């Protein structure tokens, strides 16, 4: 059975209730004055209800620009939502918000909304708070860098794919394990966008590794998310393993 919840978030209203495996409305508070609607998909592992004591690692996934809007089915085209559609035993809780058409993950309003959403998920599901990971592709890769910069204390590791960030912020993330991916033939987001972040992190002795696919174009995410090594690496990192911020 698919363990998705389709949830709509409205700013400035308090959370009411949620029922496992059902479609509900979730409402969250935010400090933002501007109101922003946010849909998202929540995946719970097949065995989530088998043991009420087990706490699960969580992946926050940020999609690319082509999946913006209000159609949640678009999220299942790429990335983690595509994986969990087929892999019901995927050993993570996965939360995949959908950016509205007129926004970008780097917008302050969206960052705050996503962080509110993540906080509510951490408080309402059995999440191992020391194993919360963030990843995203293209626009979501940029968003991953932005949120890792904004709240490095929340995450155990980050995986930005074909994105980019601000090299001047590298010191804020130097203790956060980051695995960067890009396609060498990418003409949509040039590899230099990732590489300047990698160089900046290396300069401050950050915990960064970089995979450049020599024959990949913009889609460097399909191979990345299909690689079991990625998930093994994520699970090898805990928030308690790196310096407290």
TrEMBL record:
Gene Ontology terms for molecular function: hydrolase activity
Signal peptide: none
Keyword annotations: Signal
Residues in coiled coil: none
Ligase listed as a keyword: no
InterPro entries assigned: AB_hydrolase_fold (IPR029058), Dienelactn_hydro (IPR002925), Plant_Biomass_Hydrol_Est (IPR050955)
Pfam families: DLH
Occurrences of domain Dienelactone hydrolase (ranges): 12-218
This protein's record includes keyword DNA damage: no
PANTHER family hit by this protein: BLL1128 PROTEIN, UNNAMED PRODUCT-RELATED
Protein name in the entry: Dienelactone hydrolase domain-containing protein
Organism of derivation: marine metagenome
Phylogenetic placement of the source organism: unclassified sequences, metagenomes, ecological metagenomes
